[in-house]
Design goal:
The chain is an alpha+beta fold and 410 residues long. It has 13 helices and 22 strands. The strands form six sheets. The protein has a six-stranded antiparallel β-barrel with strand order 13-16-15-14-17-18. The chain has a five-stranded parallel β-sheet with strand order 7-3-2-11-22, with helices on one face. A four-stranded mixed β-sheet has the order 1-10-9-8, covered by helices on one side. Strand 20 and strand 21 form a beta hairpin. The two termini are 25 Å apart.
Length: 410
Amino acid sequence: MMRYDLIIAGAGACGMIAAIKAASQNKKVLLIEKLPHLGAKLKATGGGRCNLSNTLRPDEFMNSFGREGRFMSKALESFDYKELIKFFSSIGVDTHIPDGFRIFPVTHNSSTILSALEKRLDELDVDIVLNTQVKKIITSDGHIQSIETNKENYLTDHFIIATGGMGYAQLGSEGDGYNLANELGIKVSKIHPAMIPLQVKESWVANCKADTIAKAIIKIDIKKHSKLKQTGDLIFTSNGIRGPVVLDFSREITPLLEKYGEVPLLINMVKGLNSDQIHHHLKNIVSSNKYHTLLAQLATLLPNSVALEFCKICEADPDSSYNKLEGIKKERLLTLLSNTPLTVTGCDGFKKAMITRGGINLKEINPNTMESKKIKGLYFCGEVVNLDGPCGGYNLQWAFSSGYLAGALR
């Protein structure tokens, strides 16, 4: 059997940068990928535009991952967004920050990133085997000894699991890393699909599809979870909701969906205005133009299609006027505008999930090295670990930072 200083399973963002880091330290590295090509998920990132990272300070960045975000402190210290920009510049990729926050390659094309990484792997003589799956990790006295694949076996003292989560299975993420960890007695936190569109019970949303609501506020209408909320752009679909706010908030909803079967939401689509403020706004609109219809008055707050559906729900004549509405209909309309109820009934699961919530339990990993606390020479990085962030380059930066730290073999 051939021996390597380091073997890595998974040739995504974290696997490739781990290989580059180790090989640049004169380590003999083997990169194993189950698909016929490298970086399939990286290539699809951000709709192919590849939002690499963002410019948040480390403390703000970590807070975006929730209460366990502090785990990534050492990884970010080793390789933050500034180091990422320098690294890509050194391998021929220029980046920019067009909105002052998100970092992209200037080409806005993920193929630019992938080609540069592949070129660097080749320059460093990293061995790559494709269409190959790691089947078993052999240990001896708590140390990595060898790796068995569906084709050949290899000797090594260091092995990195960078196999990703369960999202987008067609891009190679099928939970292989979790299975390998479980076989070694390493705990895996329960996994759920995240960053995913949601399906709702209410049929009226189909009449508003493709309309975007800016700065919508979504809250969970379950007493125990009522403090959970998210703000951002919302888009209606033929059977539900999507958009950045939904993708970010879905990580909170999918576990509850599994638990309760359906999840009631309250959505404010009028930039946080409450019933009284909406009432005063509409009264002012009536005063400024008494000939406006109710539909036109509501359209100052919402897209026309949504305003029309709200009229239907409240049984209010869209050709009438706000000041002519009966008291009960007026009250119903104000409540609907400030807290629109929607009921999440499902999602498309991991086949449409961009990321995975859950993964290798953080208590199993040394955050200073990404090494297993139980097995010497075993490392984890990227999405396979129980850390996931919102849209905006968070998860890709975590992949690069954790892969860089793991590849350092400290």
